[in-house]
Amino acid sequence: MIYRDIIAAVATAPGRGGIGIIRISGKNLPEFAAGLIAHPLEARRARLTPFLDAGGAPIDEGIVLFFPAPHSYTGEDVLELHGHGGSAVLQLLLQRCVNLGARQARPGEFTERAYLNGRMDLAQAEGVADLIEASSKHAARAALRSLQGDFSVLIQTLIKKLIRLRTLLEATLDFPEEEIDAPTRARIAEQLSSIQQQTQTVLEATRQGILLRDGLHVVLVGAPNVGKSSLLNRLAGEDIAIVTNVPGTTRDALREQVDLDGLTVHFIDTAGLRDSDDAVERIGMRRTWEMVAKADLALVIEDASGSIKGGESALEKLPESLKQIRVMNKADLIAKNPAREVSARGQRIWLSAKTGDGLDLLKQSIREHAGWRPAGEGLFTARGRHVEALLVAQRYLGAASGEIGRIELCAEELRLAQEALGRITGEFTADDLLGEIFSTFCIGK
Ligand code: GDP
Fold this sequence. Notes:
Elements: E1 7-10, E2 17-26, H1 29-33, E3 47-52, E4 58-67, E5 77-85, H2 87-99, E6 103-104, H3 109-116, H4 122-133, H5 137-147, H6 150-173, H7 182-214, E7 216-221, H8 228-236, E8 254-260, E9 263-269, H9 279-294, E10 297-303, H10 312-317, E11 323-329, E12 339-343, E13 346-350, H11 359-370, H12 384-401, H13 407-425, H14 431-439
Parallel strand pairs: 1-6, 7-9, 7-10, 10-11, 11-13
Antiparallel strand pairs: 1-2, 2-5, 3-4, 4-5, 8-9, 12-13
Helix pairs in contact: 4-5, 6-7, 6-13, 7-12, 12-13
């Protein structure tokens, strides 16, 4: 283990609270704590004690907890001071720690040390951040599974299988004069194909994991007064957008998060898309376009009765790659039953935001678009970089299967596939990427 300097941070959220925690990690903390606590530290035992300033007067009184290395979160000595949760008292305590030689921790630095000291791998460390950030209970549970290593185990299993196959190849390489016999070739092909299948399964689960973590971003577009806000209110089940029959009332982009069977959908209501001389309205339009550019799906809303026109120019401006579902709202006005029509041009859903009829068809359609399988057990959170690494591994595995006749080349492709998988758990991860990952964490974690 590499011993690093002592870091300290307020680990509880800013603001007032019953308890505030200072977390400290580093080398030889009993010596460090001698200036802060009047008695020797006891391992893993809660003790009520005053926290002392330089003159020996108490700054606060609270519980001290000591986790000696290596059995701690970071793998180093860790000290926790549980004092009162006020920002002034916590800042005084933190300052005292700095005076005693600690440095203020960077965001995620405790978890980074845990990773560097082998207490967890990179995918688990990302699970820690995902759990803190989780915006739904499904996402929280899935993040906990990543943290506990469910995702890492899948990757490790793939890597182990790859190592076994590489060993088999290396063994044949050692005897170049011998021909590789047909049974050996068949074994190589069989093992490789099993690894490829498993990689595909993991890839699919990983894609679901990204959806769980990030959700789906869906933009509502359409001419003013077609019923965008009404639809959003229906989907969200509460009044969050302003519904009026004056065109152009919904000026600002509104976001609402809706849970569709565990899939978090971020709906973005848009300012009525039309040309306008009004400066405020123009700002609304610009924001709309920025969000459209980043969205996964557009709901293009029309008035089924045909009494509201417009919005075509907006439609033409949607990115070509952005998938659309056409929503024929106000079906109640023409007494049309809810329906879902699928044609070569895409989908059309007839519904009524006013009565709620047909809402289920729309929700189902959105779930299908996302490829969302209702949250089963065993889901974990994942990130774009994990999918990228799996895709790279898949490419090398594909190349390897084309080279079974040429063992050296095949072995090299397998080595590269293993390296790509190793980037997920952090076995082969560049320092700058590590910095990027941990910098998104909170301070004190
Ligand atoms: P937006 O400008 O696109 O956000 O439209 P709003 O949601 O503000 O709706 C405009 C008007 O249409 C309001 O008076 C709504 O009550 C009405 N409206 C919205 N949806 C429906 C619907 O499904 N049926 C009927 N009959 N009226 C609706």
